[in-house]
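Handout, page 2. Input:
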Amino acid sequence: MGIQNKSPNMTKNPANSDDKNLMDITQYLKDGQYGHKKSIPPLAQWHPKQCGTMDLVIKENGEWWHEGQPIRRQALINLFSTVLWKENNKFYLKTPAEKIEIQVEDEPLFVNQVDQILIDGQKYLQFTTTTDDIILVDQDHAIFMREYQGELRPYVQVRFGINALIQRAAFFHLIEMGELYETDQKETILSLQSGNFSLQLGC
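Output:
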């Protein structure tokens, strides 16, 4: 799936423009050392103008495609994931100097690992994404179910209105950490506990 109409302020050679934008963002992140898995730039404090669109698509299966080709370098994907921004239901790569719209088929982050950890004697659910985000499940990072193309999928809230899809193997592991029960209406519910935060998911 490609990018729709290009912004009229783009150059006549969008491929070259995309390459330059990617290089600029990469250099900025490397200079600021924002590529570390725990270093998320203060995106909410930046208010750049939108600089058009880029032919960059994050597929619903987690693959990143640029100009019709998959990006193979995971380190590069991890780097770009730190400047993902969502605004008015659109996704961007954002720096202090520019905000470039990209296309996301479902959600841009993907949980591939779930663990139970102890903090002050309490058990918490902790997710790890394919881009090295660490998410502790709580009220601000809740798990929820949502339909995508006719399929009910599990997600967790991450940051800036961006969610992560909990991939199938991780969700099966999550089920093992919770309790399944059936309501009088024959609906299957997964009950989970993370610290003092409890939630129930209809599966």
